[in-house]
Write a structure and sequence with these properties.
Number of strands: 10
Shape: globular
Order of helices and strands: EHEHEHEEHEEEEE
Distance between the termini: 25 Å
Structural class: alpha/beta
Radius of gyration: 14 Å
Helix content: 10-25%
Largest sheet: 5 strands, mixed
Strand order of the largest sheet: 3-2-1-9-10
C-alpha cells in the first residue's frame, strides 16, 4: 500500500496550485494523508475528488469550516500500520520522543507546520514531515512524501517536485 503525504498547501493563494506531479502521485496512491493547513474547504474537496480516501487534520490557518470538519489529531490504520497525524509537532528538540509519547500505539507520525521536510526513525518508530508542495519557504524545493506500508511497517520517501 502506498499513501501520498502532503501538508501546508495553503490554497487558494494567488496563482499557486498543487504541482501536476503531486496531483498524479496523489491520484495513483491508495490513500492521501494531509497534515494540515489545507486552508479552504473547496481545496480539501478537490483533493478528495482525486479518488483515494483522504485523511486530514486541521492546521492553524485552516478556515472555520475546516476547523469544524477536521480533527486536530487522528490515527489511521493503513496496511496494518497505525499512523498518527497532527499539524504542529512542536519544537525540534525532543520531537521524536514527544510524538512517540503522544501517539503511543502508532508506528509512525506524520506532521506539518514548519514546511521543512524531515524523516527520523528510532526503534521501529518514525516521524515524517513532507514539507509543502506549494509553499517551500526557505527550502530548495517544493516537496511531498510517499509512505510505503507493508506488513505493518512504514517507510517514507521525500519527493522533490521541482
Amino acid at each position: 500500500m502506498v499513501a501520498a503525504v502532503i501538508s501546508d498547501t495553503h490554497l487558494p493563494r494567488g496563482s499557486r496550485r498543487i504541482p501536476d506531479e503531486c496531483v498524479e502521485r496523489m491520484r495513483a496512491a491508495d490513500a492521501i494523508l494531509h497534515a494540515g493547513d489545507v486552508s479552504e474547504l473547496e481545496v480539501l474537496e478537490e483533493i478528495e475528488a482525486l479518488g483515494p480516501p483522504v485523511y486530514a487534520v486541521r492546521g492553524n490557518v485552516d478556515s472555520w469550516e475546516l476547523q469544524a470538519r477536521l480533527p486536530a489529531r487522528r490515527t489511521v490504520e493503513l496496511g496494518g500500520a497505525r499512523i498518527g497525524m497532527v499539524h504542529d509537532a512542536g519544537p525540534a528538540t525532543g520531537r521524536l520522543a514527544r510524538l512517540r509519547r503522544q501517539f503511543p500505539d502508532a508506528d509512525a507520525v506524520v506532521f506539518g507546520h514548519s514546511h521543512i521536510p524531515l524523516y527520523e526513525r528510532a526503534d521501529g518508530f518514525a516521524i515524517f514531515n513532507p514539507g509543502s508542495p506549494t509553499d517551500r519557504r526557505r527550502q530548495p524545493h517544493h516537496t511531498m512524501g510517499l509512505a510505503t506500508i507493508s506488513d505493518g511497517a512504514v517507510a517514507f520517501e521525500l519527493i522533490a517536485l521541482d
